[in-house]
Write a structure and sequence with these properties.
With 95 residues, the chain is mostly helical. The protein has a domain of 51 residues. Helices cover 60% and strands 0% of the residues. Helix 2 runs antiparallel to helix 3 and helix 3 packs antiparallel against helix 4.
Amino acid sequence: MLVAASVVLNWPRLMGWLERSPEPSVRASTPSVQPPLPSPGERAVADARRLLEQGDTAGALAALDRVLPEEPAYLFARQLRQQAESVLKARGRLR
């Protein structure tokens, strides 16, 4: 009986508490999404492509030499190197 009387007396306060929206303890911030940074091999391949577009085939070859075999970009760098070497061979600058 004591419990029932306590519930009846506190019912309006309980309902008011349940109707209130909770206050956030920490303000939610928008997460910042940043793209992953390219690896040194990926940067070297990008540099080589830019140099090839500018006509600097020798500079592109030097940039591709910086790509290490254990890097994921290595196979692509080898293919790009073969293309650059074929350009130099066509120009008669590489044997």
